Amino acid sequence: VQLQASGGGLVQAGGSLRLSCAASGQYRMAWFRQAPGKEREFVARLSRNAHRTNYADFEKGRFTISRGSDKNTAYLQMNSLRPEDTAVYFCAAAENPLGTNWDYWGQGTLVTVSS
Q1: Mean pLDDT of each 10-residue bin along the chain, 115 residues long
Q2: Which residue from 4, 27, 32 is spatially nearest to 96, judged by alpha carbons?
Q3: Which residue in 21, 52, 102, 103 could disulfide with 47, CB within 3.0 to 4.6 Å?
Q4: What are the backbone angles phi and psi of residue 59, rounded to the nearest 5°?
Protein backbone atom coordinates (compact mmCIF):
# COMPACT_ATOMS: atom_id res chain seq x y z
CA VAL A 1 0.00 0.00 0.00
CA GLN A 2 1.37 3.37 -0.96
CA LEU A 3 0.27 6.64 0.58
CA GLN A 4 1.20 9.87 -1.15
CA ALA A 5 0.66 13.00 0.92
CA SER A 6 0.73 16.45 -0.62
CA GLY A 7 -0.56 19.98 -0.21
CA GLY A 8 1.71 21.35 2.49
CA GLY A 9 3.39 24.70 2.22
CA LEU A 10 3.89 28.11 3.77
CA VAL A 11 0.82 30.08 4.78
CA GLN A 12 0.16 33.11 6.94
CA ALA A 13 -1.73 32.81 10.20
CA GLY A 14 -5.44 32.78 9.52
CA GLY A 15 -4.98 31.18 6.12
CA SER A 16 -6.05 27.81 4.80
CA LEU A 17 -4.49 24.73 3.26
CA ARG A 18 -5.89 21.46 1.96
CA LEU A 19 -3.79 18.35 2.34
CA SER A 20 -4.34 15.29 0.19
CA CYS A 21 -3.43 11.67 0.77
CA ALA A 22 -3.76 9.31 -2.18
CA ALA A 23 -3.95 5.63 -1.28
CA SER A 24 -3.81 2.59 -3.52
CA GLY A 25 -7.16 1.41 -2.21
CA GLN A 26 -9.99 2.28 0.13
CA TYR A 27 -8.96 2.19 3.80
CA ARG A 28 -9.74 3.67 7.15
CA MET A 29 -7.55 6.76 7.10
CA ALA A 30 -6.20 9.42 9.41
CA TRP A 31 -3.94 12.43 9.68
CA PHE A 32 -1.26 12.91 12.30
CA ARG A 33 1.27 15.65 12.76
CA GLN A 34 4.65 16.12 14.36
CA ALA A 35 6.00 19.52 15.30
CA PRO A 36 9.72 20.10 15.80
CA GLY A 37 10.86 18.64 19.09
CA LYS A 38 7.46 17.10 19.83
CA GLU A 39 5.90 13.68 19.56
CA ARG A 40 3.58 12.72 16.74
CA GLU A 41 -0.03 13.52 17.60
CA PHE A 42 -3.40 12.55 16.22
CA VAL A 43 -5.23 15.12 14.11
CA ALA A 44 -8.29 13.46 12.54
CA ARG A 45 -9.55 10.12 11.28
CA LEU A 46 -12.12 8.89 8.81
CA SER A 47 -13.88 5.54 8.63
CA ARG A 48 -13.51 3.48 5.49
CA ASN A 49 -17.03 4.33 4.36
CA ALA A 50 -16.48 7.97 5.33
CA HIS A 51 -19.55 7.91 7.57
CA ARG A 52 -17.63 8.59 10.78
CA THR A 53 -15.01 11.16 11.64
CA ASN A 54 -13.08 12.02 14.79
CA TYR A 55 -10.95 15.03 15.57
CA ALA A 56 -8.37 16.08 18.09
CA ASP A 57 -9.58 18.61 20.62
CA PHE A 58 -7.08 21.27 19.56
CA GLU A 59 -8.77 21.69 16.16
CA LYS A 60 -11.94 23.21 17.60
CA GLY A 61 -13.81 23.04 14.30
CA ARG A 62 -11.00 24.43 12.16
CA PHE A 63 -10.11 21.19 10.35
CA THR A 64 -12.26 18.87 8.25
CA ILE A 65 -11.32 15.39 7.07
CA SER A 66 -13.11 13.98 4.05
CA ARG A 67 -12.82 11.40 1.32
CA GLY A 68 -12.63 12.11 -2.41
CA SER A 69 -15.09 10.83 -4.96
CA ASP A 70 -12.57 8.15 -5.98
CA LYS A 71 -12.83 6.76 -2.41
CA ASN A 72 -9.05 6.32 -2.28
CA THR A 73 -8.05 9.87 -1.38
CA ALA A 74 -8.41 11.52 2.01
CA TYR A 75 -8.34 15.27 2.41
CA LEU A 76 -7.65 17.49 5.38
CA GLN A 77 -9.03 20.98 4.96
CA MET A 78 -7.35 23.28 7.48
CA ASN A 79 -8.77 26.75 8.09
CA SER A 80 -7.83 29.54 10.48
CA LEU A 81 -4.32 28.19 10.70
CA ARG A 82 -2.13 29.22 13.62
CA PRO A 83 1.65 29.23 14.03
CA GLU A 84 1.29 26.32 16.46
CA ASP A 85 -0.14 24.23 13.60
CA THR A 86 3.32 24.23 12.04
CA ALA A 87 4.34 20.58 11.69
CA VAL A 88 4.97 17.73 9.31
CA TYR A 89 1.58 16.19 8.58
CA PHE A 90 1.41 12.44 7.95
CA CYS A 91 -1.42 10.40 6.59
CA ALA A 92 -2.05 6.86 7.78
CA ALA A 93 -4.22 3.99 6.62
CA ALA A 94 -5.49 0.77 8.14
CA GLU A 95 -6.83 -2.45 6.67
CA ASN A 96 -9.12 -3.18 9.61
CA PRO A 97 -12.23 -1.02 9.38
CA LEU A 98 -12.38 -0.84 13.19
CA GLY A 99 -9.85 -0.11 15.90
CA THR A 100 -7.13 2.48 16.26
CA ASN A 101 -4.01 0.81 14.85
CA TRP A 102 -2.51 2.09 11.61
CA ASP A 103 -0.80 -0.22 9.13
CA TYR A 104 0.62 2.21 6.59
CA TRP A 105 2.14 5.69 6.74
CA GLY A 106 2.80 8.33 4.12
CA GLN A 107 6.03 10.30 3.87
CA GLY A 108 4.68 13.51 5.40
CA THR A 109 4.09 16.98 4.06
CA LEU A 110 5.39 20.11 5.79
CA VAL A 111 2.99 22.83 6.85
CA THR A 112 4.51 26.11 8.00
CA VAL A 113 2.29 28.85 9.40
CA SER A 114 3.89 32.23 9.78
CA SER A 115 2.71 34.80 12.32
Answers
A1: 92 98 93 96 92 89 92 94 97 88 94 97
A2: 27
A3: 52
A4: -75, -35
